[in-house]
Amino acid sequence: MSKKTLPLSSEMNMYKLFFCLFALLVVSCDKEEDFHVDVDDTALLTHSDSVAAMASYERIHTHTAQGTAYPVVIMADGYDVTEVNNGTYGRAIDKAEDALFDREPMSSLKPYIDVYAVTAISGSSGVGTKKKDTAFSTYFPDIEHTTEVGGDSLSVMACAEKVLQNYGYSKQGAREAVLNHCLMIVLLNSSRYAGVTYFCTIRTSSDGYPVGNAISYIPVNPVIEVGGTYGFRGDVFNELIQHEAVGHGIGKLGDEYWYDDTTKYPEYQTPTDNAVKLFNNLFTNGYMQNIHYDDEISIVHDVESSSWVYPFAIDSRYASEQIRWYPGAYVYVKKFFRSSVFSVMNSTVDIRNNAFNTPSRAAIYRNVRHVADSSWQWDYEEFVAFDKENRSTSAAKGIVMDTDVPVVMYSKRHISPFSMLSR
Fold first, then answer.
1. For the chain, N or C: smaller number of CB within 10 Å?
2. What is residue 259's predicted lDDT score, i.e. its pLDDT?
3. Separation in Å, CA 296 to CA 228, 337, 338
């Protein structure tokens, strides 16, 4: 295996915009001056090259459909040489691959996806609130209740470039794939409940499809304990993979939950101008198509005809899902709306048993198919046929819509992105 290092150009500078998730944080990127954060320093780039040079690479799933494939690269952090040699690292990678295809539409999109594994040995075991000697420098900010994760995303992208080059991509092709559509998943050796997805390039292709990579940081054994009627305690790794990596990373979806505790979170009652500005930037680039902003309406209402959601809302074949605009999304109680009562992107009742709603499944399907074959064009009826066939044999056959079910929100503390970026 070649050990030649891969220099990272200035185009990999990460412009970070921030919006929070329900216990699952998304940091997105843009080139708006107010949110610009320059991380292109020589020391970090040198470290990135070093990590990529020392890692080993493998393709663990190969697409079977014609065309190229949607690339997914999985790696892990906080695993020392003993844990690599005894198979612990490998089992974490296998767990993530299984979780990636855990439910529809990903189960049936497997023929269009390549999955690669990166083995990067850390100097110490585990991930904590302080940076340790690990390959990707991941850590949990020492802030109460936060589900945020920090890490060296440049090294992650360097490893993704390397593995794609090892499996047939040209140097330029690997860089373009990593910047434009690659999903990178970094597993953390921890049982802490946390998760974050970074969008590092955001734009729209010439033919109208959303463009941009994603990096999801997810603990490999996340345990959450929730009381009340829908309480449970258990590992929710699959759900974090589906919400973060599939929902945000591939589908470019927005969160369909909100903070309704006015005492604890008064700032999430009404969105700020910056929050609306960020959403509009994402939305106009084909992201967040499952949610909606309206400054005037505050009740459940029908979907406007220009929306991505509209065809599903008026299609009798999806009547059971009751696709409408429901108040509460993008973490805000007011002015943002979600497209179904429950979904993977909401997870307000039982995080373990939710499916993606139809507009979300369609967005994931569209993005995978277009990356796998750039000549492919979206066709509504083609998706409906795909969806009907595969959901009929899937555990995720649909979402039971019951508006009388009480909504239970998990309260999590959100921190300012700027406090994180200054650490």
1. N
2. 80
3. 34, 12, 16
How would you list the strands of the sheet with 16-19, edge to edge? 16-19, 25-29, 196-198, 214-219, 183-188, 70-77, 113-119, 56-61
Rounded Cα gap, residues 343 and 106, in angstroms: 15
Q: Identify the residue with better confidence: 208 or 167.
A: 167
Amino acid in the structure at residue 205: S
- Of 5, 9, 119, 1, nearest in space to 53 by CA: 5
Decide: 333 and 327 in contact? Cβ < 8 Å: yes
38 in helix, strand or coil? Answer: coil
Closest to 289 (Cα-Cα) out of 335, 239, 248: 248
- Give me 88's structure tokens: 């612990």
The yes-or-no verdict on residue 304 having pLDDT over 50 is yes
The closest alpha carbon to 163, from 374, 45, 1, belongs to: 1
361-366 long-range Cβ contacts below 8 angstroms, 24+ apart: 361/104, 361/105, 361/387, 362/308, 362/312, 362/387, 363/251, 363/252, 363/253, 363/289, 363/290, 363/308, 364/105, 364/106, 364/109, 364/246, 364/247, 364/250, 364/251, 364/253, 365/105, 365/109, 366/209
Question: Is the full-model pTM beyond 0.70?
Answer: yes
Of the candidates 205, 398, 216, 204, the one whose C-alpha atom is nearest the C-alpha of residue 288 is: 204
